[in-house]
Amino acid sequence: MAEVKKEKQHISLNICDERIDIYVQPDAEGYYRDAEKLVQTTYGKFAEMFRGRKSERFIAATALLEMAVKYQMEHASKDTDSYNTLLQRLTSDIDEALK
């Protein structure tokens, strides 16, 4: 069956006072909008704490670091490899017992 190719759509995002124009799949737009809000919120938090005392680059780097750490923590908590391995072994054991 032929795959239907979706047209990408143009969206504009505001990240750290920069307008970013990109093309995305329509079903991915919500993710980009949510990411925009996350970046703005995180950046704003650090800008409030450090603006006037630290560079904008430092503020942006600190915000990126916080988002990356949260991503890594979330990713680690959803690591299912060990569960999948255990499930495969149990399934195999059950199959052998039923033979």
Indicate the proportion of strand residues: 5-15%
* Helix share bin: 55-70%
Gross morphology: elongated
Name the structural class: alpha+beta
Could you tell me the radius of gyration in angstroms? 22 Å
Distance between the termini: 38 Å
Number of strands: 2
Widest beta sheet: strand line-up: 1-2
Average residue pLDDT: 87
Number of helices: 3
What does the main sheet amount to?
A: 2 strands, antiparallel
SSE arrangement, N to C:
EEHHH
Taking pLDDT < 50 over at least 5 consecutive residues as the criterion, the unreliable ranges are none
In short:
This protein is α+β, with helices and mostly antiparallel strands. The protein has three helices and two strands; from the N terminus they run ββααα. β1 (9-15) and β2 (18-24) form a beta hairpin.
Give your account of this protein's structure.
This protein has 3 helices and 2 strands; from the N terminus they run ββααα. It has 99 residues and is of the alpha+beta class. Strands 1-2 form a two-stranded antiparallel sheet. A hairpin with a 2-residue loop joins strand 1 and strand 2 (18-24). The longest helix has 22 residues, at 29-50. The protein is elongated, with a radius of gyration of 22 Å.
